[in-house]
Specification:
The chain has 196 residues and is α+β, with helices and mostly antiparallel strands. It has helices spanning 36-47, 51-70, 114-121, and strands at 2-13, 21-28, 75-77, 81-90, 103-112, 124-130, 136-141, 176-177, 191-193. The protein has one domain: HU Protein, Chain A (Irregular), CATH 4.10.520. The chain has 3 helices and 9 strands, in the order E-E-H-H-E-E-E-H-E-E-E-E. The strands form 2 sheets. Strands 1, 2, 6, 7 and 8 form a 5-stranded mixed sheet that branches. It is flat, with a radius of gyration of 21 Å.
Length: 196
C-alpha cells in the first residue's frame, strides 16, 4: 500500500500585496473518512469479539482517555502512541499580568508510537502532479529518506521550521496560498508568544 499525495499548481502569496508565484503545493490525497461504526465492526472481526462488546469497550476507552487527559495526564492509545492536552499562550514579564486571557488556543497533542512511525517511514509515497488547468502532468514514486516529524523534539531536522516547541516567539511556519490553505508548522508542547 502507498500513501497518495497530490502536488497541485497554485498561486502562493506570502503577504496581502504580494502578486504571488506559481508553485506545486503538496498535500495528502485522503480517502473518505471511516465511520466509527465501520472501525468497530472491523475491530470486532479482527479480535473475535461481538460488535456489542467492542462498542462498549470503545465507548469506555474514549471516556477514560478524555477524563484522564483533561486531568493533565498523557494517555496511552494502544498501538498508536499517546495524547495529551496543551496550549499556546503569550508570555509576560510581570507575574501580576498572568491571566487566562493570555491563552491563545488549547491543543490536543498526539505523539505517535515508534512502531507507527516506522510503519509510516516504510510506506511508499506516490505523488500525482496536477497543473493549474487541472491536467495531470507527472507521477512520482517516493525516494525520500522517510523522515518522520517528532512532536517531542524541537529540532527534528525537517524543512518545516514551525514544528516542535516554541519558547521564544510566534510559531508561524510559513506562508499561505490564495486558496485558503495554510503552510503553517505543527508540533507539540506548549508554545509561548512574547508578543502582546
Amino acid at each position: 500500500m502507498a500513501l497518495k499525495v497530490k502536488a497541485v499548481e497554485k498561486k502562493v502569496k506570502f503577504s496581502k500585496d504580494d502578486p504571488g508565484v506559481w508553485r506545486y503545493v503538496m498535500s495528502p490525497d485522503l480517502y473518505i473518512a471511516l465511520s466509527q461504526e465501520k472501525v468497530i465492526k472491523e475491530a470486532a472481526l479482527r479480535s473475535g469479539v461481538s460488535r456489542g462488546v467492542m462498542q462498549a469497550c470503545w465507548d469506555a476507552a474514549g471516556e477514560v482517555i478524555k477524563a484522564w487527559a483533561t486531568e493533565g495526564h498523557s494517555v496511552a492509545l494502544p498501538g498508536l502512541g499517546s495524547m495529551r492536552f496543551g496550549l499556546r499562550a503569550k508570555s509576560v514579564e510581570d507575574v501580576n499580568d498572568v491571566k487566562t486571557s493570555l491563552i491563545k488556543t488549547r491543543r490536543i497533542i498526539f505523539t505517535p508510537a515508534v512502531d507507527l512511525k516506522d510503519e509510516l517511514k516504510n510506506t511508499s509515497i506516490q505523488i500525482t502532479c496536477i497543473d493549474r488547468n487541472g491536467n495531470e502532468v507527472k507521477r512520482v514514486t517516493s525516494a525520500d529518506a522517510g523522515t518522520i516529524e517528532d512532536p517531542e523534539n524541537e529540532n527534528n531536522g525537517g524543512e518545516n521550521n514551525g514544528g516542535g516547541e516554541n519558547t521564544g516567539g510566534e510559531n508561524n511556519g510559513g506562508g499561505s496560498d490564495d486558496n485558503g490553505g495554510n503552510n503553517g508548522g505543527g508540533g507539540g508542547g506548549t508554545s509561548f508568544d512574547t508578543g502582546s
